[in-house]
Amino acid sequence: MARVAASARRADPLVFVPGGWPANKIMIIPKSFAQVVPLLADAADGANKYGTIIGVKQNTEDVIRAAYVALVGKPAGPNNVPPAVPGLMALWNAAKANKCAQTAALRTAISNGRALAMTVVASLKPALGRSWNSSWNAVGFAAGSLAVPDNPATLLLAMRAYYAANPTREVADVNGTACTAAACQAAAEVIAAADTASNKSNTDAGTAQANLQDGISAARNILSGLQGELGQLLDNEDPRWLAFGFDQPGHAGTPDVPQNLTVTAGTAGSRTLYAHCDDARRADGYRFTVTNAADNSELAGDLTQDAEDTFNDLPAGTKVLVTVTARNATGESLPCAPVTIVVP
After folding, report:
1. How many CB atoms lie within 10 A of CB 264?
2. CA dist 205 to 36, 97, 216, Å?
3. Residues of CATH 2.60.40.10 domain(s) within the chain?
4. Each residue's pLDDT tens digit, 303-326
């Protein structure tokens, strides 16, 4: 959760739409996926209902819905015909999950390889000496130490070569581990494959992230274009602005009061509360406040960019009131109705 230390995040620079409303009345198009997607849905519904009637030509319902589907995807049809189409956010989430999985697989491969290398060292000490000497050069230890490196892939290949040249020193089972040329080769290959897969997953994650940001930017351009079109077609006070998800330009100003505040207690003894509310229209940030229900003294307060907050280290067993206001560069809304809860 993002925090704002001193004041709420300021809105993006305002843009003048030629022939439309005054620049200081334009609703700022949000930047986050979580805010762009519902605005796209509203805009598409508004275009479906009023687009033809009022003469929207460029940013039509089809254009808006295509941007929406690109971001969120499309569910499968009956009997999976046609199949589901993942959106850019789902592809990004899948890429992140794969990146984590491949990183874990590489760590496991390296850990197993190091364990094998250390077992090989232990098995060869009776023949080569219990500390490093020149005999260990052939095994791959040329730095005056028998320490196994963090990534043992190169060392394992050297050990394979050593066993190939000295097959009588292979041991098929050392406490369940095969100290053989084949085992060292296999372990090195597993590390190499895992390393390649991990590097690819990092690249894929970067590509998926860039694609998502491009999709959000494209959607924001469509919404901005639609806002510009509506500025030419509707009066500032026309209520149909709301059907498209936009503020009426003549009414733009401080945010609406946040709705549907919920506060959830953490586990017993955690002294933690989790607060969430709906995104408020025109909000660039929020102020969450916790007060003691007994005397109205403030116990905690946070400025956030998102419509959520987490409060830690509150006094256990205290009945508290939690409220939230919405904020932007113009001002701050009234607080919502307080939610009463006992700190766990």
Report:
1. 12
2. 22, 9, 17
3. 262-342
4. 999 999 999 999 999 999 999 999
Query: Of 49, 45, 19, 43, which is closest to residue 29 (Cα–Cα)?
Result: 43
Query: For the chain, give me the number of helices (H) and strands (E)?
Result: 7, 11
Tokens representing 314 are 């509150």
Dist CA 216 CA 298 (whole Å): 39
Fold of 262-342: Immunoglobulin-like (2.60.40)
Among 338, 234, 300, 318, residue whose Cα is nearest residue 3: 300
Residue 33 sits at φ, ψ, to 5 deg, of: -55, -45
0.85 surpassed by pTM: no
Residue 203's Cβ-side half-sphere holds a number of Cα atoms within 13 Å equal to 6
For residue 191, pLDDT over 90 is answered with: yes
pLDDT confidence bin for 247, thresholds 50/70/90: confident
d(CA 141, CA 148): 9
The larger pLDDT score, comparing residue 19 to residue 55, is at: 55
Q: How confident is the model at residue 17 (pLDDT cuts 50, 70, 90)?
A: very low
